[in-house]
Amino acid sequence: MYYSNLVSVARLQRNPTVKNEISGKSFGDSIPTGFLMYPISQAADITAFKATLIPVGDDQLPMIEQTNEIVRKLNHVAQDNILVECRPLLSKVPRLPSSDGKHKMSKSMGNCILLNANEKDISKALKSMYTDPNHLAVEDPGQIEGNIVFTYLEAFHPDVAYVDELKVRYQKGGLGDGTTKKILEECLQEILKPIRERREMFISDKAQLIDILRDGSRKSQDESNQVLNNVKQALGLNLF
């Protein structure tokens, strides 16, 4: 709420990520206030803990930029460095496309593979994963560019040389989409299984899980309240 006084509506509307999502959701002129302001909310999440390195996809880089603008503006008002700037941490795959190859990943659209997905969910998602629409027969040469199966293989398969070999075979012809999807499925099943099992372990002991969440909430409130008090002081709101 305090940061919203440091950012103009025009600046929020110029945010590239926000602009793209507004267009994708067909809001027109009826943009919900909460939606327009979520970059400010993200800035609050980051600065509340004085975070300096933020793991994000490249579509979130405008959010990091907006956060740092707020940091500089608040520090200017305070005439003191009470907030710290942050920088993004990008992986070798800055943004993973959705399984349908069309829209941004969304749970509601069913075009993503969740970390808690079971074996059947993973298999189902891969069967409908976007490949090369012109690769109709196994012997046909196939396209790698825009082929989501190969995008995921590049991102997750541990054997880079093997994936390169698959690319050559696919482009020449003689490698079917069913085979590449099966290879990817084996890879993702192996990666997600221990994550799913660890998640189930914690969920099975709900009392312990609640204790962990309460302890984390307590610590986060202590840290964020210190930052909040400094922000209020800078804005002249700590009067008592």
Any key phrases for this structure?
single chain, 240 residues, mainly alpha, Rossmann fold, Tyrosyl-Transfer RNA Synthetase, 2 domains, two-stranded parallel sheet, 10 helices, 57% helix
Topology, please?
Layout: H1 9-14, H2 16-25, H3 33-36, H4 38-47, E1 53-55, H5 61-78, E2 87-89, H6 119-127, H7 148-156, H8 160-172, H9 177-204, H10 206-234
Parallel strand pairs: 1-2
Helix pairs in contact: 4-5, 6-9, 7-9
Report on this model:
The protein is mostly helical. It has two domains: 3-95, 3-Layer(aba) Sandwich (Rossmann fold); 119-204, Tyrosyl-Transfer RNA Synthetase, CATH 1.10.240. It has ten helices and two strands, in the order ααααβαβααααα. It has helices at 9-14, 16-25, 33-36, 38-47, 61-78, 119-127, 148-156, 160-172, 177-204, 206-234; strands at 53-55, 87-89. The chain has a two-stranded parallel ribbon. The radius of gyration is 23 Å and the shape is elongated. The two termini are 20 Å apart. The mean pLDDT is 92.
The CATH architecture term of the largest domain is 3-Layer(aba) Sandwich
Q: Cα distance, first to last residue?
A: 20 Å
Write out the CATH superfamily name of the largest domain. HUPs
- CATH C-level label of the largest domain: Alpha Beta
